[in-house]
Every structure is written in structure tokens, then in C-alpha cells.
Specification:
The protein is of the alpha+beta class. The protein contains six helices and twelve strands. The two termini are about 25 Å apart.
Length: about 230
């Protein structure tokens, strides 16, 4: 039986940190673009990274935001000449282990325990994506914003005297990119939440003062943090 504390991330860090140097990337660095040949997978040791796509008309969509202790694998595995499906950009200064795609695939193919952990990681990621799609489809633009704020609280939340501080600087445009809406719509919804004293917004940081209000509005099922995150 697999150790419940065993994860593909910890397994890879343990294996590859002896072979690869830690690389540092400044905030705003692009790791890869959509349709680039997939050459590497990344282990995020420190910092925050956005994964997304750019629409033909130039509209940017952020699919997820990753923080410390994350694995970045954004291509079709075991396929000849794969390409990245999304772009990846650092939102803060980051430290990563950069691993060649072939080395990563050999590692999980030759280590049964690592393969089991990787399949578990993939299945959790699938559930996260399904739940996020459900929220955005069923709750509309306003409900989609509320859902994203709840997920941000789960992933980046810090309890303060005022409420739950989302410890990740976000502009209104970045929040719009996360909810697949326009900045104008998001600004109106955020203004309404501020007027109702549900949130604070200072120095690009959100504080959710009344999380229960957001949960009630979207009929939150109180899923585990593992499923209900922004990552």
C-alpha cells in the first residue's frame, strides 16, 4: 500500500534535486508559450505561476494559479513531439527545478510508486477542473467571481482581524482573466461586494470579510481544499 504522505511532487524533488540545480526566475518571466515544443516539466519550489491561454482576439484567460510545491506538466504525455497546451508565466520571483521531458517520463515509467502517485495527482487535477467548470457554467459571471474568490481563500487565505486575506496581489484585470469575464463586469461586481462590506481591496490585495455570504450565493458544497483551490 502506498504511503498516504507520498506524492509525485515530493518523490520528484527527492530524486531530481540531486541531479538538477535550482533555477531562479524573475516575476513576469515566460516559461513557455502555447504550441511551443514541450521540452521540460517544472517543479515549483517557491513563488506563484499562472497557466493560461490567449484567445485569437488577444483576450487572456488564466486557467489556474500555482503556488509552492507544485508540478507543472502541460502537454500530452508519452506522445512523439508534444507541444505545450498553455502558456506559463511567473507572477512573482520563483525558484524551480527544470527537468527534461524524457527524464521525467522515464522516471515515472520505471518507478511504480511514482506512477501511482502521478495517476493520483492527475485524477485530483481532473476533479478540480470539472468542479471549476461546473461553478462557472452554473453560477454565471457574478457567481463565477464568487467561486474564484472562495478558491483563492482556500489556496492563499490568511486569517486576519478583518477577515481572510488573499495573500496574492491581483489586479482587476487578472481577476477578470481568472473568471473569463471582462474587467468592467468584474469591477461592477467587486464594487457591489465592497458596498455590502463583503470584501476589502487595498494595494492589489483582497480581504474577504464575509466568506459565508459568497458560499451561500453559489450554494457551496464545502468540498475539501484539495479539490476547491485555484490550482
Amino acid at each position: 500500500m502506498q504511503d498516504p504522505h507520498f506524492s509525485i511532487y515530493s518523490s520528484m524533488v527527492q530524486f531530481f534535486q540531486k541531479k538538477e540545480p535550482i533555477q531562479k526566475f524573475k516575476s513576469g518571466s515566460v516559461l513557455f508559450q502555447e504550441k511551443d515544443p514541450a521540452q521540460y516539466v517544472y517543479l515549483l519550489l517557491k513563488g506563484s505561476i499562472a497557466l493560461g491561454r490567449v484567445h485569437l482576439r488577444g483576450k487572456e484567460f488564466i486557467l489556474k494559479i500555482l503556488n509552492d510545491r507544485e508540478l507543472i506538466v502541460e502537454y500530452q504525455l508519452f506522445k512523439a513531439n508534444p507541444r505545450y497546451q498553455f502558456y506559463s508565466k511567473t507572477l512573482s520571483d520563483c525558484e524551480l527545478l527544470v527537468i527534461k521531458r524524457e527524464q521525467f517520463e522515464d522516471f515515472i515509467l520505471t518507478d511504480p510508486e511514482a506512477m501511482n502517485a502521478f495517476v493520483s495527482w492527475l485524477s485530483t487535477g481532473y476533479l478540480k477542473a470539472q468542479m471549476k467548470c461546473q461553478d462557472l457554467i452554473m453560477n454565471g459571471k457574478k457567481g463565477g467571481l464568487y467561486s474564484i474568490l472562495i478558491r483563492l481563500c482556500n489556496t492563499y487565505g490568511m486569517k486576519t482581524e478583518d477577515g481572510i486575506l488573499i495573500d496574492l496581489p491581483l489586479t482587476h484585470q487578472e481577476l477578470a482573466n481568472l473568471t473569463y469575464g471582462t474587467r468592467e463586469v468584474i469591477q461592477r461586481s467587486l464594487k457591489e461586494l465592497r458596498e455590502k462590506d463583503i470584501i476589502l481591496y487595498e494595494n492589489q490585495m483582497f480581504t474577504v470579510k464575509n466568506l459565508n455570504y459568497l458560499k451561500e450565493e453559489v450554494d457551496c458544497q464545502n468540498c475539501s481544499f484539495e479539490i476547491c483551490g485555484i490550482n
